[in-house]
């Protein structure tokens, strides 16, 4: 047992260790996920910034293109200026040259900055490389440690053999493997990070180079344009000088001509000749003068057009200057933007580097922490394993001893089982014997009960005559004659007296029910007789009395106050249910009506069919009614359904035949067949519940025809019944069963050894006194013949039937 407890303790320890390992694994996975997320966000931010930079560079490129086109346009303008002879404004060209030199200076600055950036990036790359190298080294160290631990675990596993501990070790190995994977993943992520950091720097450098080449191209083209402009300017200066020279020569010529003309005019007559000569010569001179003037005019026009042209060119140059200055401003703003961007880029690079350093630091710290944890776990595991080893040895020895015990246990078990079986068999035989004994006792008790019950019933009388005084029902018909004519004795429930024709008539019967007696109280009195049916007795219960005396009420009752029929069936079913397991029962039911000595089946599909009583063809001497429906009853509910069907069928006759129910007998027969399971004893009992026709003496009041026939038949059958009961009570050898259909039909139930209850119903009304006395006389006549130990003193009344 102690081994088992030890084993369980170790097992629980193992479980705990497994749980912890699982916990660590989860922690590691969480950390890994966190780091991945961090790196992902960093990468996203970096990408976004790079995108911004690229868009800025693109915008810069477009600006440079624009500048190029402007320069091309300028170039074209300079070419146009080279051809006409006009003075050229040198200010714009100078400005352009100056801006180009500024640009060159800027370019030199940018080149320097790019060079510095390159150096920075290289420096950063080197640092990054160093960090990744150190991380790589750490990873290698971790790998080595993991390898060592694996080897240790393998050794431990080899020592421990195939137990639950091995599962634990396997779990730890799996955990180590996952740790390794996470480390390699971290390594990969770091590499990716490094790659991400280097990539944009190279791109930037490349773009800077491109920009630089573009600027160089622009500068060369500008240089060429400047040279062209200088050449054009010198050409124009030349042209202007020549023009001025020609103009000066012509003016000098005109001046000399004017002077010579004035000299000629001042000379005497020969001067006339000279004048004439001059006059002769002067037209030619005038003509040449005119020509010279004309030429002078054209030259002046040319000069003015050239000066206009020069004006325009100057304007153009002014515009170009403006354009160049705006471009210069733009370039400066772009340069400032580039500077800002460069700063931002540098800041971002610094931030990224700081983040990267932080991430690396965190990763390394985390790895170190994990390593520490793992180391601690390993130490814990080692110590636990060390403590487990002796326990394991103990367990092994325990296990071996248990195994040997188990081997012996089979024999011990078999012996104990045999012993237990023997004991159980003994106990079972004892119990079955006791059971048998009990069963015998029970059967004896049951027989005794039956006997005592029978004795009790016999003591009360096998044929009992009871009287029920109907409750005074205050109906209109009976008004004025409502006084009770019956006097009951509260102290003696067997006596009642009636004041009839001035005389007191005293009657003594088996029991008298007072008007206020309830349906339940009535049934309680006859319950033992009813119950004897279940024990194989035939029982007949008759309700006798004049019309309206309460026969149907006593037998059928109402829904609120069920009568004998309903209560009898209920208790019978209850008893059958109580005997379940000891007895099995089958119940069948038939309902007939006897009217004018004709039997009709109330449960038949054709209730009008007349039935007859015949001897059973099986030779048993028993009577039977061919064609009579004898319904097998499944439950109490089924019985109720059948009763209402019979009632309905009878009601149909009533409507057809004018209150026939009062003048016909209704017979309900329940047959109960039972079998005792232990002994196989079978019993069959019948309960006949009869609501007799009204006993009033209508035939005496001069009734005729059908009514007379009815009355005669009723009287005949009731008389026959009285005679049969009398004969039975008197235990006569011959019982006149065949005198009526009713007694003939009930022959087997009225015979010797069976039980009969005659419930004589009387009306309490003064107006019914004659019939009441008549019914009581009938009851008394039946009662007086009683045989038994306690002879009754009976004041015999007159029989008027
Ligand atoms: N003990 C009683 N308590 C209350 N009402 C009763 C009692 N006995 C009879 N009645 C009522 O008296 C009336 C007549 O009774 P019932 O129909 O049972 O007489 P009956 O003898 O069967 O008549 P019939 O011969 O015409 O069938 C019914 O309304 C019934 O409910």
UniProtKB/TrEMBL annotation:
Q: Which UniProt keywords apply?
A: ATP-binding, Cell junction, Coiled coil, Cytoplasm, Cytoplasmic vesicle, Cytoskeleton, Membrane, Microtubule, Motor protein, Nucleotide-binding, Phosphoprotein
The record's section on PROSITE patterns has: KINESIN_MOTOR_1 (PS00411), KINESIN_MOTOR_2 (PS50067)
Recorded hits in Gene3D superfamilies, A to Z, give: Kinesin motor domain
Query: GO CC terms for this protein?
Result: adherens junction; centrosome; cytoplasmic vesicle membrane; kinesin complex; microtubule
Tell me which residues make up the Kinesin motor domain: 462-785
How does the protein associate with the membrane? Peripheral membrane protein
GO: which molecular function terms?
A: ATP binding; microtubule binding; microtubule motor activity
GO biological process entries: microtubule-based movement
Role description: Minus-end microtubule-dependent motor protein. Involved in apically targeted transport. Required for zonula adherens maintenance.
The family note in this entry says:
Belongs to the TRAFAC class myosin-kinesin ATPase superfamily. Kinesin family.
What protein is this chain from?
A: Kinesin-like protein
Which organism is this protein's natural source? Eleutherodactylus coqui (Puerto Rican coqui)
């Amino acid at each position: 047992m102690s081994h088992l407890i030890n084993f369980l303790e170790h097992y629980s320890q193992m479980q705990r260790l497994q749980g912890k390992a699982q916990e660590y694994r989860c922690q590691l996975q969480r950390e890994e996920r966190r780091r991945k997320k961090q790196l992902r966000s960093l990468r996203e931010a970096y990408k976004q910034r790079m995108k911004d930079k690229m868009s800025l560079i693109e915008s810069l490129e477009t600006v440079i293109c624009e500048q190029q086109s402007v320069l091309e346009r300028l170039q074209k303008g300079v070419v146009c200026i080279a051809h006409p002879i006009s003075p050229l404004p040198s200010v714009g060209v100078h400005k352009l040259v100056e801006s180009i030199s500024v640009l060159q200076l800027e370019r030199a600055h940018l080149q320097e900055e790019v060079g510095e950036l390159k150096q920075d990036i290289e420096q950063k790359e080197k640092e990054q490389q160093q960090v990744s190298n150190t991380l790589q080294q750490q990873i290698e160290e971790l790998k080595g440690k993991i390898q060592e631990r694996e080897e240790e675990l393998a050794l431990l596993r080899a020592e421990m053999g195939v137990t639950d501990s091995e599962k634990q070790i396997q779990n730890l190995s799996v955990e180590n493997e996952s740790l390794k994977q996470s480390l390699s993943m971290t390594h990969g992520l770091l590499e990716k990070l490094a790659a991400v950091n280097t990539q944009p720097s190279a791109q930037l450098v490349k773009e800077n180079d491109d920009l630089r080449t573009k600027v160089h191209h622009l500068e060369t083209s500008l240089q060429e344009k400047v040279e062209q402009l200088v050449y054009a300017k010198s050409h124009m200066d030349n042209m202007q000088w020549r023009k001025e020279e020609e103009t000066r020569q012509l003016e000098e010529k005109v001046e000399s001509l004017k002077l010579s003309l004035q000299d000629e005019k001042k000379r005497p007559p020969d001067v006339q000749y000279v004048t004439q000569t001059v006059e002769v010569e002067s037209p030619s001179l005038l003509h040449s003068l005119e020509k010279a003037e004309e030429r002078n005019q054209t030259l002046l026009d040319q000069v003015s057009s050239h000066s206009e042209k020069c004006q325009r060119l100057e304007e153009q140059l002014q515009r170009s200057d403006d354009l160049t200055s705006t471009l210069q401003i733009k370039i400066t703003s772009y340069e400032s933007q580039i500077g800002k961007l460069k700063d931002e880029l540098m800041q971002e690079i610094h931030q990224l580097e700081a983040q990267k350093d932080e991430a690396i630091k965190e990763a390394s710290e985390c790895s170190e922490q994990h390593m520490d944890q793992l180391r601690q776990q390993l130490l814990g595991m080692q110590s636990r394993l060390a403590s487990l080893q002796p326990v394991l040895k103990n367990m092994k020895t325990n296990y071996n001893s248990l195994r040997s015990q188990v081997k012996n246990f089979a024999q011990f078990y078999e012996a104990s089982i045999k012993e237990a079986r023997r004991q159980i068999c003994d106990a079972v035989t004892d119990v079955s014997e006791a059971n048998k004994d009990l069963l015998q006792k029970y059967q004896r008790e049951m027989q005794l009960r039956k006997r005592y019950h029978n004795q009790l019933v016999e003591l009360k009388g096998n044929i009992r005559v009871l009287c029920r005084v109907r409750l005074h029902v205050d109906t209109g018909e009976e008004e004025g004659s409502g006084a009770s004519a019956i006097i009951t004795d509260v102290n003696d429930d067997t006596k009642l007296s009636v004041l009839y024709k001035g005389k007191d008539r005293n009657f003594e019967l088996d029991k008298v029910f007072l008007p206020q007696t309830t349906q339940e109280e009535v049934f309680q009195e006859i319950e033992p007789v009813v119950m004897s049916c279940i024990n194989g007795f035939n029982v007949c219960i008759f309700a006798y009395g004049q019309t309206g005396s309460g026969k149907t009420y006593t037998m059928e009752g109402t829904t609120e106050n069920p009568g004998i029929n309903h209560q009898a069936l209920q208790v019978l079913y209850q008893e059958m249910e109580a005997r379940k397991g000891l007895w099995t029962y089958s119940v069948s039911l038939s309902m007939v009506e006897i009217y004018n000595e004709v039997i009709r089946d109330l449960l038949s599909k054709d209730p009008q069919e007349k039935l007859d009583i015949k001897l059973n063809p099986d030779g048993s001497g028993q009577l039977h009614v061919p064609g009579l429906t004898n319904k097998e009853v499944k439950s109490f509910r089924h019985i109720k359904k059948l009763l209402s069907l019979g009632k309905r069928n009878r009601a149909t006759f009533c409507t057809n035949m004018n209150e026939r129910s009062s003048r016909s007998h209704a017979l309900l027969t329940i047959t109960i067949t039972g079998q005792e399971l232990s002994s196989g004893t079978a019993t069959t009992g019948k309960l006949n519940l009869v609501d007799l026709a009204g006993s009033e003496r209508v035939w005496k009041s001069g009734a005729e025809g059908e009514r007379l026939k009815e009355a005669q038949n009723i009287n005949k059958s009731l008389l026959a019944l009285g005679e049969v009961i009398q004969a039975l009570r008197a235990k006569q050898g011959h019982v006149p069963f065949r005198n009526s259909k009713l007694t003939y039909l009930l022959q087997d139930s009225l015979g010797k050894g069976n039980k009969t209850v005659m419930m004589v119903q009387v009306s309490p009304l003064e107006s019914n006194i004659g019939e009441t006395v008549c019914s009581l006389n009938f009851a008394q006549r039946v009662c007086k013949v009683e045989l038994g130990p306690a002879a009754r003193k009976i004041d015999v009344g007159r029989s008027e039937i």
